[in-house]
Amino acid sequence: EQLGFVKEHVTIVENMFKEPFGIVLLTGPTGSGKSTTLYAGIRRLNLLEKNVITVEEPIEYDIPLLRQTQVNEKAGYTFASAIRYFLRHDPDVILVGEIRDEETASTAVTASTTGHMVLSTLHTNSAVGAISRLKDLGVRPFLIADSLVGVLSQRLVRKVCNACKESYIPSDMEKEYLKDPAIETLYRGKGCQICNNTGYFGRTLVYELLTVNRELSTLIEKEADPSLISERATSIGGHINMPDIMTEKVKQGITTYEEAVRILGSIRQQ
What we know:
Elements: H1 7-17, E1 22-27, H2 34-43, E2 52-56, E3 67-70, H3 79-87, E4 93-96, H4 102-112, E5 117-122, H5 129-136, H6 141-147, E6 148-160, E7 165-168, H7 172-177, E8 186-189, E9 200-211, H8 214-221, H9 226-235, E10 239-240, H10 242-251, H11 257-269
Parallel strand pairs: 1-5, 1-6, 2-3, 2-4, 4-5
Antiparallel strand pairs: 6-9, 7-8, 9-10
Helix pairs in contact: 3-4, 6-8
């Protein structure tokens, strides 16, 4: 919750991380807090009972009870070779810093289908886009369908400075954008010494969450169009979309209409 997750969504994410095997992917641009979320999830596991191994470049957090290793691609110690090596140590959970090439993708997915939970990141613009990205990296659709537990796509948005927060009456354009003609109040920061006159202080997450069930696995295996996968996921409650999360945070005064346009507009353009 401290990262910015809605309370009921925390349980969904935790349950994904606690699955006995499969792969959970976090997506988003550089600097969107993916590593922070991964490690927050790792910390919620019972590290005394689970054998957790991380393969990173570089090691971003030093956490007791984890077996952490840093890849050195110049020396031939790649993500893929590190995963293969540590599979001999019977890990319960393997955190892979990033899936960026075909060999890493293949090795990570293979590990996830042989009794291990794999947590990793991808550079894609959406949760459903992670499926296409894995296919682009040579992973066969039936393996994606068999292994994928869920995808969390996230962005960081600036929070309204509480020291100079003020309310205002939203314009018709803002009401239309937020799809709420009845909304009477929004919030922004006037600017003060605390926030260096920006009106913002701190950041929070907005996110999209896709959880994969049997029906979605079948669609993935059949190489259904991403829009159909997203549509079906939404209809069965397995898809939480980013615009809804952003809209609620704007209405609650956590962030601003301008931040919503900045983040959601950039995603739509991509």
